[in-house]
Specification:
Elements (H helix, E strand, L loop, with lengths): L2 E7 L5 H11 L6 E8 L4 E8 L13 E3 L2 E9 L2 H10 L9 H12 L9 E9 L4 E6 L8 E5 L2 E5 L2 H8 L7 H10 L15 E3 L4 E6 L3 E5 L13 H19 L14 H12 L3
Antiparallel strand pairs: 1-3, 1-9, 2-3, 4-5, 5-6, 6-7, 7-11, 8-9, 8-10, 11-12
Helix pairs in contact: 1-4, 2-3
Length: 283
Amino acid sequence: MCGIAGYIGKKYIEKNTIRSTLKLMINRGPDNQSWHKVEKENFNIFLLHSRLSIVDLNNRSNQPFKFEKYIIVYNGEIYNFIEIRKNLLRLGYKFSTNSDTEVLLKAYIEYGEDCVDYFNGMWSFAIWDGYKEKIFLSRDRFGEKPLYYFEDKGGVYFGSEVKFIRTLLSKKLLINYQYLNRYLVYGYKYLYNNDETFFKGLSRLNSATNMIISKDNLKKYKYWKPKIEQDLNMSYRDALEGTKHHLFESVRLRLRSDVPLAFCLSGGVDSSSLVSIAKNHFN
């Protein structure tokens, strides 16, 4: 778990505000806190990051991570980053770290906004593209990693948590009583029916959604929807073996880490199966 936050717009955010925000972000990543600003003629960009080191513990992988005119802040894990890295190496890319952060950034450089189609993982990230002068934000397919944003006349704020945005904004957010009342009536299932939140003007970037922010424009779009396809000719044995293959492959990819791993068990057959596969099959 890491924390990200940022702003793009006409406002200039003071260093004291940046420091206060980073102090709040330490609960999402105690290993490093840093920030970067880009000043343009009519607008500014601020990118903040708090790191929990999982892959490539070296300081070279700290964020914001910069390459040429690209800068990334990123929360999550790209589980298949080794496979993507190999493809990029074949295309002539060079790497200065062993992190999935650098792989993610260079996958964007190669594939553009379609880079998310190549990722197996969980993420929320923001990339400043200095060539096209835009910020590219994205959230993973199932919304495992949080990402909120707030738009006003001056610009757009974003972050992993509401309090990061509130601190950068330097003012309180008003309660969205209509949303609160509907939640009390309809319960938890109502929460994710749209991009509203418990605060007025504060939106949630929905799962499987990309957002592009430039000086004069903001657009967002769904990049993925689940598909259900049936193979009526598949035998029971094929279905069983296929499920086993995909389950084992899923566990294998998620065991990639440069720090010790732990499992949280609920005691059910699913979590017990994952621990059994990790221990007995992957040692």
